[in-house]
Write a structure and sequence with these properties.
heterodimer; A: alpha+beta; Aminopeptidase; B: mainly alpha; Non-ribosomal Peptide Synthetase Peptidyl Carrier Protein, Chain A; 4 helices; globular
Chain lengths: ~170, ~80
């Protein structure tokens, strides 16, 4: 499965790419923003892929001009309640803090709301990750109730909030 | 187009960065406050104030505020 739109390509994660993702995920620059921060072994990665390689989880390598630069996902999809959890990281420093993450968010939002027909996108963000909090708020995510004391805080986004944000982003990256 | 005015408008986008940190040779992507949202905000500011459309490549391909200014100026 491949999605090409807004100048990027999202390529569904396949087994032959999980070592690449493991190397990114174990890099301290990525690891420090994750809830799980222990070293991930090849065996752990294989088990993880077996768990997520299904219709309840969509993991994609972000490809820009032929270069694999990061990972984005919708995980733990609950089709009954219309929820799933979004995630993203850009590994390649050349594309960090750029428009690429928003291009990816547009593709993933459209997959989430229009193709999978889900209703509410969830996201967990560590409360000291200021950039990620701002990024999620820009995309229309709001913090859920009773998150004040938690380190890894839950946010949610509705379809309407996504569409409002997407219109703004599409105008700027046109 | 005046670079000092451009720097003022550029600096106004930032909430937590002291105005004195913004000079023509400031490497804006090295500022602590720089983020993907700031990249979009810079594109929006240039669109609103100068009616010039910056691309992601313009942001990626420049280091200093004056380099960005030169691109905007060349497209006016």
């Amino acid at each position: 499965m491949e999605i090409t739109n807004y100048g990027i390509t999202l390529r569904r994660l396949t087994r032959d790419k999980i070592e690449l993702v493991r190397s990114w995920r174990n890099d301290p620059k990525i690891q420090r923003f994750m809830e799980y921060r222990d070293y991930i072994t090849p065996e752990m990665q294989e088990k993880w892929f077996d768990r997520i390689n299904n219709d309840n989880n969509y993991y994609f390598i972000i490809v820009f001009r032929g270069k694999e630069i990061g990972l984005t996902n919708i995980k733990d999809i609950d089709y009954e309640n219309g929820t799933g959890e979004a995630g993203l990281f850009i590994y390649d420093d050349g594309y960090l803090n750029s428009d690429i993450s928003f291009r990816s968010a547009l593709c993933m939002g459209e997959l989430f709301y229009y193709d999978l027909k889900l209703k509410t996108s969830l996201a967990h963000v560590c409360r000291d990750n200021k950039r990620a909090i701002q990024y999620n708020k820009f995309l229309g995510y709001q913090i859920a109730d009773n998150q004040g004391n938690k380190y890894n805080q839950l946010y949610f986004q509705t379809k309407e909030a996504f569409e409002k944000s997407a219109a703004k982003i599409k105008h700027l990256i046109r | 187009m005046d670079i000092n005015e451009f720097i003022d408008k550029f600096a106004e986008i930032f909430d937590d960065t002291d105005r004195n940190e913004f000079q023509a040779n400031t490497k804006f992507k090295e500022l602590d406050e720089w983020s993907s949202i700031m990249a979009l905000n810079v594109i929006a500011m240039v669109d609103d104030e100068y009616d010039v459309l910056l691309k992601g490549d313009d942001i990626r391909g420049t280091e200093t505020i004056s380099q960005l200014f030169d691109i905007v100026k060349s497209r006016k």
